[in-house]
Amino acid sequence: MSLSTSHWRRLHGVSLGNGVLKHTLSDFVVEEQLGFIPSGSGEHIFLWLEKTNLNTAFVAEEIAKFANLPLRNITYAGRKDKFALTRQWFGVHIANFKEPDWNAFNLDGARILEVTRNDRKLRVGVLKGNRFEVTIRNIHFNDGFNDSDLLQRLEKIKQLGAPNYYGSQRFGEIRVSVPNDLASSEISPPLVTETNSAGVEPVKSVKGGNLALAEKLIDGEQIRNRNKRSMAISALRSWLFNEIIHQRIEQDCFFKALPGDAMQLSGSNSFFVNDKAEEQAKVDTRLAAYDVNVTAPMWGNGKLHTSQDAKEFELACVSHHKAVTQTLNDLGLKQERRAIRIVPEDFEWQYNDDVLKLSFSLPSGCFATSIVRELMDV
Q1: Looking at residue 270, what is its pLDDT?
Q2: Cut 0.90: pTM above it
């Protein structure tokens, strides 16, 4: 089975052009926003650490080795991009162990900026969100688009948000624009040619390992490596979620709540079902104000939380992907919900010549590349 990602619709129109993202690691800066201030006391040491070209799990392993602690004593709230400049918290449970001299911690690409303590463990998912500073260079517009269109698109995203798609990092996919006269065979690994939505230039897409592994899961192959299996499962579930967002845009029901939709309260994981006809106008008003959000299923066992029209819509979407849903059911995952829209907070930009600099905050688990995707291919 082949899982495609190239057809997912943008919300605000076709790609305006293309540019270069992460020309340098400092072109993509991510900074965690915990949502609380460490207490300053307790048996849990919190390290505020800056890293480049290192993944989070590897840094955790190195901290454990340095502190002579079991890896289970090292925690973090979320994983951060390897190919970026990121700042995040690591938790170190010392208890009866001797605290090391953190000034002696030496790892190329990493430095500890602050050491404090907290009375509770740092757990996955406690983040309020992340602050991003993103620079896109060498911007070239597609035919028919110019600077004015870019500024208008940015205003639309600021006011209306963007689809809460899982980004290409989740799938391990790399997409690059390549001149027409460059044969795929000249590039390793081989690239798959896909025409972009504007129909003006081929986009070369390399299917990454996570989605390829997900296809193996569907075909019944065993993935013995625990971490790779986990990434494959995550990619498969995320793919189906993105597919449902695509259908909401395609069928013009992204900005409106269907009868029976599961509505999430903004800034919360709580949701309610929009199943009262007399409340529809009120829900629409709250949706427009971004007080609530339509959700889509993170697929698993159990009944859908939606009802009426929304349930019919979601079942129709997944009916085309029975092998995917069956695989996720067999894995024992439970039905969950996730908002289909993100609205960047404190969204600001600077555009000079062919360089665009963006800064904004997103809730935990949301992808900055999904904001960038609404503008152009990178």
Answers
A1: 87
A2: no
